[in-house]
Protein 1
Amino acid sequence: MISKRNVLKVRYFIIFLTLQVSLITVAQKRPVIGLSDTYKDGITTVPRTYIDAVLAAGGLPVIIPLMNDDDKIMELLESLDGVIFTGGGDFDPAYYHENAIPQNGKVNAPRDAFDIRLLRSAVEKGVPVLGICRGIQLINIAYGGSLYQDLPVQFADKTIAHRQRQPLSTPTHPFVVEEGSYFSKIVGDKTFNVNSAHHQAIKKLAPGFRVAGRSTDGIIEAIENIDDTHWVLGVQFHPEALHYRDPKMVKIIRSLVDEASRKQDKRQAPKIVYVPQPQEKETITAELKPEPKETPKPQEPQKPQESKETKPETPKPQPVETKETKETKETKETKPETSKLQTSAPPALPFVITKEALLNKIKGGWAGQTLGVCYGAPTEFRWCGMTVPDTFKLYLDDDLVKKYFNNDDIYMDLTFVGVIDKLGIDAPTDSFAVAFANAGYSLWHANQAARYNILHGIMPPMSGHWHNNPHADDIDYQIESDFAGLMSPAMPDAASHISDRIGHIMNYGDGWYGGVYVGAMYALAFTSDNIPYIVEEALKTIPDKSRFHRTIQSIIDGWKKYPQDWKKTWQECEKSWSNEPGCPDGVFLPFDIDASINAAYIVLGLLYGDGDFAKTLEISTRAGQDSDCNPSSAGGILGVIKGYDALPADWLKSLHQIEDTKLSYTDYSLNEVYQVSFKHALQNIDRYGGKTSGDSIVIASQKPTTVRFEKSFAGITPSKRKPINKNLDKPFTFKFSGVGIVVRGGVKCPDNSYVAQIQVSIDGKIIETVQMPADFRTRRHEMFWNYQLNDRKFKIQLKWLNPRPDAVVRMTDALIYSKEK
């Protein structure tokens, strides 16, 4: 991780570098080529061979340091004419939808996230890109392809040793150029020998790319994009290490330099940049696209487009993600392995509503969730694994909302609403992430783990992935997803599209499904007052093999079996689904912040509440656990069904006291939120093919489509909680057996700027130096975790590297994971 001191150094370095590059460019007019940071052990470095190769090809090399600020990345790219993505270690396989096998090497999460962001930024700027070794793998997975994690294990042909023992300056195996490719124009020869220093390689080629060359055993060694909107080339070998002896290798680097010299004339970037969402190996991918402005129609499959016989004189390998490329130029080689479902399904019937009625329902949604969270606030997590007893009086009075309305379950939604308000409904995911991570409020669980990740360079979607976030299945995005449904009336798949982008900031798997499901219920609540229909229809968005789907289905089944006894249904659900699998605070304990069981309590209130506002909130509250968030979501959905004007007057009386008061950490009062959310809904309706005429709105309504399957903590299960309860005054060592471990603990210091550094070693090998801020707002929720260990005995040691007398580092316990049987 990067310390604050190093961040300042990087900033000064960027300023110096930018000035230096500008002076060099003006003076010599030679293309400036950026080399991506290998970032090893906190050190910014690039092998000398890359620098020499760029100089030999006529370019000026500069190093692009790893950094977390998108604006500074874009600013630096203004001074660059081309980018080379350098070689390095393995990517986290979650980026291409797989779990890691034992042979997958140690991943560098900050570099993974940075390289994805740098590639995306370069494409947006129209900067030519060359990927070398790891670089070709980056391009492939960033555009939807996958990798062999280990060729010796996963690739049958063993005739070529792709990780050669000889120096990289020695070519060791043949390379066959694809006839008719742009790459063939660059190198001229049909075959030649290359070096090889990789154990991973392209398995499924990314859509929109074509193979430009292979090794003789069939491994893809060069790729180029199909259409001509930009210049992207990837090679699996290392031309920079062979350029001293082979003129063809200089030609490869020079092809980038030549294109870079033309870069300032005109940059034409693709309209869409695809960044993959991590998911498990078996998936159904929901591809979400806005409908055209005319009557929405399902897209028809397109035939693959053959390569043109004539090629431009100047070789221009090009990147991929234009609309035309994605929809019409998929070759047989690039056909996805997973099925694609069009989530913006053609509507069964248009849904017509007046502006006044739409605003009334949106107001009802915001009012209902505000009333619900205030009603349940006195009970939050006071009853875990049990219902709130009837002897505890839940109350409503005129001051109820005034007491509790400044609640994180409301103002957090408004962070995302505010980004949309400022940047539009297509605001980049990173904009939401940065606003969320830097907000002034405190966070917990998945949100806090995501904040820590983002502040330390791990951006969405990996900030919410269970490899990096032990709270991936927690309730967090489920609480915040109301806005997505409220701006997607009658369009559950539009809500899912928003949830896909924002929900993966902090969640994955069941944690993400909670937001998808709640958003879908909100969207459908605009169209029907039939609560069982809304509950069951919205569940179609969730894969039926997921734990989340089965948990909600158990509530629906219980309601049908025991229509008058919500407590009986609660007991059946508790018996089957209360065993928290992920959150380290709840495993083996009554505390359960898992999204699926808390979503079940939302549905419990909706089904057994029979449309009565007070009864709905009371049941969702008395179900326990997160008993302010659950009635908040139930109240918001019911508020949409009823509309603001039909909410009970005695409840609205309490709300009226604060509707003009700004909520904490926001620029909005509720009265302002009503109007802003209404504006966003109109924009989203228009985006998905709806039309407004006078006071009438015609919405291209959508049928729910199942989103892709994701599963957190796949193949593992918690097996033991080991108490520690010690201060880390001296190195602490203990043994455990399993495939995963989470060590819980924290740091206290009167100096909020202090950051404890904890060195974690396993079997004598340093695994991570953990940065633990004393500042509660930026704290690390757990001390250490790793879910990807081989199943055996381990010895772990924790050592405090920078102790100070006024600080305390406390270890509480360790949670051990074993293989799932």
Note: The radius of gyration is 28 Å.
Protein 2
Amino acid sequence: MIVNEPVHDTFEDTPAKDRDPDWFKRAVFYEVLVRSFQDSNGDGVGDLKGITAKLDYLQWLGVDCLWLPPFFKSPLRDGGYDVSDYTSVLPEFGDLADFVEFVDAAHQRGMRVIIDFVMNHTSDQHPWFQESRNDPDGPYGDYYVWADDDKQYQDARIIFVDTETSNWTFDPIRKQYYWHRFFSHQPDLNYENPAVQQEILSALRFWLDLGIDGFRLDAVPYLYQEEGTNCENLPATHAFLKRVRKEIDAAYPDTVLLAEANQWPEDVVDYFGDFPAGGDECHMAFHFPVMPRIFMAVRRESRYPVSEILAKTPAIPANCQWGIFLRNHDELTLEMVTDEERDYMYAEYAKDPRMRANIGIRRRLAPLLDNDRNQIELFTALLLSLPGSPILYYGDEIGMGDNIWLGDRDAVRTPMQWTPDRNAGFSSCDPGRLYLPTIMDPVYGYQVTNVEASMASPSSLLHWTRRMIEIRKQNLAFGLGSYTELPSSNPAVLAFLREYGDDLVMCVHNFSRFPQPTELDLRRFNGMHPVELIGGVRFPAIGEWPYLLTLAGHGFYWFRLRKDAAKPAKGKAVTEATVATAPLAGGAPSRTAAPGTSGATGTTGTAAVTAPDTAPAGASADAAATTTADEASTGTAPGRAGGAGAPATGAAAQPPAAAPDTGDRAAPGVSGTYARAAAADWSSAPRAGATAGDGGPVATSGTAVTPAAAARPPAGAPGAPGRASGAGGSSAAGGSSAAGGSSAAGGSSAAGAPGGYSGAAGAARAAARTAVTDRTSPRPAPAPDRDGKAPAPAPAPGSGSAGMPSASPGAALGAAPGRSAHAAGKDDAAGAARTAARGAGKG
């Protein structure tokens, strides 16, 4: 019997060109509890009209899809997951007309809406169960799983071990046992009965006809039971999901089914369906095991918990996507870990027993991480960059806290904190009437932590989160790209590549609380420049050797790898024999490179003189990418720093005092006593015209000479790559090639504007020519100051920010395509259903 027959809607009027089947892959999801978000009528309980009033805030944040947990009619013994009517709204939340208005308002702002649908069970107050227990031979008698004893299905695990002792409960009215996988007041439906299947399909169509964009299917692994199994992931379950997907795809395009299957990845991938067909069951599935392992990895300061679970994750069909989250809304679930790992997590994150719930930890993100801003940012960066679509929990964007003194899951379901005013701006009611008390402690209390204060502070977590969401949308590789982990020399650093066509994004995360260096094998991207996505800073070019980076404690980098290498400078080509060597202040020649021996080929003058490709600390990002001729001639250019804007330290920028200054520079991220892996043997006196440290002969004025022998780095120093020999000149890794950022005499750097000189580089060109001409005689050393120290060199001409066009993130890629007006609103397809709903709600 069909209790609620929805208005039929085939969506036949939706043009194919307006459809966006991959919208959920690019989307950022936001879970919002109706009860907890905003109270519109002052009764102390959040409602649908309240959420509608706050949609502008969610649009500003950058949310693409809203996920509403159950708001159906319910006795609320399990937060609404104990449904008593699948097709009606809980009266305190509003009515169907309010829901339709909410969906339409979200669609007008370009946001989609999915809702929770509890497929596995109902409340024991549902009319179906009441009829089943009172009339075993009636039409609802076998809507649930009944048995004369509790001996069946003994291999099935008990999920809520802290409250339930069996999956069977005796009913005193029917005098039989009924089956339940969760609470005893939530009996499981009997999917062996075709009428039950039809009821569920009808309820799904009912909400789709009201304009929603999909469902989170709750507890789908447990739909069927079979003796001798654990009653999870059975073939009959997958067969029913295939039927659901087929009917929804045929009538409701661009809708999504998100499976909540708390299983190991090798089991969850089955819920995507047929791999060659691109998936014929659920479009999405939560990746439960990766969540607790992020927390373990940070506490252990090791990437391996995350690396190993991602390595064990099988490939998924082309039309499917993972759902990534940091907490499973109500708790940090610990089902998909070993007993030893669970004990470790309890010891680290739930020292107070009140923080535990079921097999998990009922705490919000900020308290879990001790309100450490660096850790919160690291976790959010992982959430937004790991393979899958991120799912945010309401309030986490402002760092809301929890209340472990409240019962069950209510600890993390407190009212949203909007303002420092009465009831946190959530409701105008008397504070004692609130459905749950607001957070009032001195750290997370609403007087301190609220949306109003966060909006007023540009450095707040809220503004930072919005910026990160914006960056994710500008780079399609995050949502649509492949995932490849990059080997890292440091076990505390996780690095991976997201690739989608020409969009290459490299993410590097430090799980340690201390600064950490790492070397990455990026030879595949030789000659490309990493551009940091948050600030648009252009990092040194990738070469043949491992790329060195230094990350702050709990720090991270997001890079776009740009393929636009600089073109060679124009001018007269010169031969190796005509290249002149400019003596340095210390008497040793600076590096020179003849055309053909480095990345830069030829200049207008007589020599191509290399120079550092970074500016002194404090210079602008553009200046860091511009080479100056005076620094090259004096050998006083600073070494590369590990992080953007950090000064070089130690002897990385300069060789020992007793050694000749070759003008060489430290590799990025190196701060210590050596400038490169194959350090020059400074004890050997250099011969006239020789350049120490290179792996091949160096072109000098008329004569090619052999460089000084290379020596090993100091004992205990981390190994960095040596230099490859260059034919007839300095090597490509030696800083004189286009990949190394060398500058030609004309002033055009490899890090400069592609296609030749920019208009702002004219001064640099003239200065460079003058410097080359003046290098026929030694340059006197600068006079020491009163302390006997050499003064810092004056800024070189042409090294300002005008010498390099700024690199703006997202310039090459537009934002993710938005949904069309028709697809967003489903304007006319569900008209009859909406009209009926509004009439019913207001009647």
Note: The chain has 22 helices and 26 strands.
